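Chapter summary example.
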Amino acid sequence: MSEPVLAVRDLTKSFGALRALGPVSFALRGGERLGLIGPNGSGKTTLINCLSGTLRADDGRIWFAGRDVTNVLAFKRARMGLARSFQIPKPFVGMTVLENVLVPLDQIGDGSDHEARAMAILRSVRLDARAGDDAKRLSHLELRKLELARALVGAPKVLIADEAMAGLSEPEIDEILAILQRLSEAGVAVIMVEHIMHAVMRFSQRVICFETGQLIAEGTPQEVAEDPLVQKVYFGEPARH
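The structure predicted for these 241 residues follows.
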């Protein structure tokens, strides 16, 4: 079996006396679709902030693409191909949709034709028709797509999608799922952090569940959904079938 594209070993993070995360260990294969679930306050956001470099873990190690990135700054991890979208889209106001993608592309400075590349990214999320429009005119779904587009500028190997479907209708959820599915088929590993359980279960090949900073269950969507501890966390008692 090939080496994992992302691996976490004994990762911990505390805020004062509160242990928010860990110790947590897991690995992610290239192109894998991993669902990350858990109730509010379970440690999901702390984990993805540590993975992306927004927070520095207190202990443990993070490996990405064969390199120890535990102490690598967030923008350097992004340039290496460890990308994330954010739960609340915040486009650059007063700029067009195209310009919103060009800004992070310009930071890469790789000498490529950035406008052509930005348009290709917008096409991949079905947003190219809005390229010349002011970003403030986008619908909620289109803002979600723009958030994903900006995360894709670095041609990531891993994309952490943080509640990319929050507030969307069922047809809109299907659109976002289709985008993430195409990314997976192109070889991008996707970590879906989401409260919309049926979307996580449809998309994921493997699911991990967190509670009070601990990984309490891991397996296929069906295995995790039927786990008595997961059912207790979400419903207070095992679900009756």
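To summarize the output: Residues 6-88+156-235 form a domain with the Rossmann fold fold (CATH 3.40.50.300).
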